[in-house]
């Protein structure tokens, strides 16, 4: 009887998670330009995206924001004078579902200047949900760096308001939490709040009307 209840509970958990993701979402094209707001524990910042900069990447950014992926998201990697990185959802299955839909690689068309936003990647077709904001001009370094068969990080958006908020995100943990991504993916925010209690969070992100 106990094993039956365990299987039943597992079925419910998977069923609920699957309802929160539809593959057809990843087929939606973004407008040629759009704006969005990120509400965080430090305040708000707004972004502007232009599809021409990275069509597949901007499409994915639009899809993620529209489907409320960036809700209760830790700003887990804040390296002073470099970048702030985020994009691991508290739902490990939801992370995997989005990651399974590949974003085609694209060339860098816009420079990684201060305030620009790019998807993190670690090789061919590895852009998925994680983003970073440049805290200073990281061009041409992040435009041209090669590794894993790809060159550079294509910019998908830029901060247009609230860069002062971005610069205030807690940065004393530096790169250290990024070395624990396995635990973050497996245990989510419970792990982060226990091990890195001072981290800031994205409360929610949503599209803005023109």
Order of strands across the main sheet: 3-11-1-2-10-6-7-5-4
Q: How many structural units, i.e. domains?
A: 1
- The CATH topology corresponds to Cyclophilin
Helix content: 25-40%
CATH class placement: Mainly Beta
**Poorly predicted residue ranges:** 1-18
- Taking all residues together, what is the mean pLDDT? 92
How much is the radius of gyration in Å?
17 Å
Characterize the biggest β-sheet.
9 strands, antiparallel
List the topology elements.
Blueprint: H1 2-19, E1 33-40, E2 43-50, H2 55-66, E3 73-74, E4 77-79, E5 83-86, H3 92-99, E6 116-119, E7 131-134, H4 141-144, E8 146-147, E9 150-151, E10 155-161, H5 163-166, H6 181-187, H7 189-195, E11 201-208
Antiparallel strand pairs: 1-2, 1-11, 2-10, 3-11, 4-5, 5-7, 6-7, 6-10, 8-9
What does this structure look like?
The chain contains 7 helices and 11 strands. It has one domain (about 25-210): Cyclophilin-like (Cyclophilin, Beta Barrel), CATH 2.40.100. With about 210 residues, the chain is an alpha+beta fold. The radius of gyration is 17 Å and the shape is globular. About 35% of the residues are buried. The N and C termini lie far apart (about 55 Å). It has a 9-stranded antiparallel sheet. It has a two-stranded antiparallel sheet with strand order 8-9.
Outline of the structure:
With 210 residues, the protein is α+β, with helices and mostly antiparallel strands. The protein is 29% helix and 25% strand.
